[in-house]
Amino acid sequence: MNIPDTLNDGQRKAVEFDGEHLLVLAGAGTGKTKTIIARAAYLIQSGIDPSKIQILTFTKKAANEIVERVKATLPQSDGNSLSGATFHSWCNQLIVRFPNLFGAAAYTVIDPDDQLSIMKMVCGNQNLDFGKLRIKPQQLIDIYSLARNTKKSLTESLRIKLFKNKKDADTDYEISTIKPHVENILRAYQLKKGEQRYLDYDDLLLVVSTQLRTNPEARNILSQHLDYLLVDEMQDTNPLQWDLLDPFVSICKLFCVGDDAQSIYSFRGADFKNVHLFKERVPDSEVYKLEKNYRSTQEILDISNWLLEKSPINYNKKLQSIRGSGELPRLVNVSDEWQEANWVADEILNNFTHQDRTFSDHLVLARSQYYSKSLQAVFIRRKIPYVTYGGRKFMQAAHIKDLVSLLRIVNNPYDEIAWIRFLTFQEGVGEVRASRILQQVIENVEKDDIPNILQNAMPGEDGSKIAKLYESIKSKSDVGEMVDTAYEAMSLGLAFRYRRDWNEKRRGDFPVLKLLAKSYPTLGEFIGEGLLDNSENMNGMNVLSESKLNTAENKDHVIISTIHSAKGLEADVCIVLNVSPKAFPSAWSLDNLAEIEEDRRVLYVAMTRAKNRLILTRNTSSISAVHQRALPTNMDSKTDDADTYFLNDLPDNLVEQLIVEHKFGKVNDAASPNKIDLSSGMDFS
DNA sequence: AAGTCAGTGCTTTTT
DNA sequence: GCACTGACTT
In a 3-state reduction of DSSP, which class is residue A524? Predict the structure, then answer.
């Protein structure tokens, strides 16, 4: 056995665990991923059929990485049938693979954009105005999703999402007035989803978990296909995901890893009870702990530990570095975003030219996607290659969705969103005509074939052209060819519609789309899983495009990521942007202890990504212009950020402080779209 | 009825 | 930067 040689005692004990179910509590940098990889490899080497091991993670990226690394440790093709997936894509696979069991095979998976479109359709011109409270369609989606993910009542979900979980007579009354209206709309939304054969992300989990809990036959069948379930990031699972995992306690053996101090998804319903109650809820289970940190130097862990100790929550955790001492973390004080961005660029370029570091040794973390926009502008101008993690996904880009809408129609003729998108794509067809055509399609789709309906609904050349196109795609068996056929028919229209940046940005995405499509055996799987594929996005502007699947791997680039997308990542140099008052904790969280503590964990996750050098930047002009504008209106009150700012009483000996002088020239206007907004120079104190 | 363009407001975090 | 709106043109 070659892998376990590099494991420490704790890791080895977990990897070679011989009992039924195990939870591994693993602090940041203690080799969580390594342990799960070694566990999979160990099981395979002990003779377990790799196809009976399922690895579950939260992102596709993490799943792929784990599977690849397991394979790398095994001789030749031993691990080829090992499967790693996100909870969502795994459920999708199960639904496709066992159509009779789950009865949802002919459905189309819809993404958040589609959900919003449906919700808007359902709301129509109905305004949800309740005095000062106006509920937007997106909020309705959020409420609906929270209720289903946490198994909470509508009343409680409304309370959490609209009233910050406040409990008093006034709030109770308001909720009771609002609730019936919301309920009506949500019911209409559910109905519409059903009619159009849609499954949203939550439905994927729900369909599978409901079936497994209520149907012994389903458990029976799955137990023949599964021996081990390995779950990563257990602290981020929510009650719905627990419902999904629970039946597997009697189907196979669970091996879960997680860290309560890194739980940062409660806005999505994550509940670290799933970690804390593991031993009580799972019979024949054990809990092991990993506490030795291999990633970071002690100085980096000191400040991370300090942050966690300040919390009212007791995490009972103090990371100890086995690597020993290194550089003191730096706290860099800047006075605006552009100065910050330029300082970061200087640091990286300096490390690159004088310190023998590559660009990919650097990880830049921001709280939100929005915040790194000015940094990206500076990187482009100063020619620092980068990729972004988190953010708009490839499949969500408008031009891709246009083409995919045609494929979706072929896949599921009940898919109204796809029909509307495809029909309005045709020249001379707007919303009104599209709805009329759609009407006819929906009325006849049961008894007639689509090409016929189309020709009736759109007399003349247009109709027959589309009808022919439909037939031609339908006749193809290879998904890549379907993309080709669709592209051939639509490329002129696409080029015109996106003429502004067609050649520069969009055109190159279609070969990538084809490549992606070719890797799926059926159209249904491509549409479902392709949507769920959280691949790195293509709007990193200066890298990627066609290169994604071949060359991107060996390119040297800085990674810019949201902290949420950075879980599991690590880097030699880690730079955390804007660790300023009103950002950590966020001004949005100020009157809610649970949210403040989640923000603390977010910062903790960010800090513990660093191996050798940790740099925190903060804006000393107290509050950035961005936040000024977006602040909630009732912010003026009680909570002084001086009380809550995480770095407030940071001991001097934990960091080295730097104050950046105003030495950088102004950024060129062309490269900095937000410049005027952001550096207005106004003092609002 | 559709398409275009300029002006406006808004942005936590993700499958 | 993005989505949405309203006024204008085709």
Answer: helix
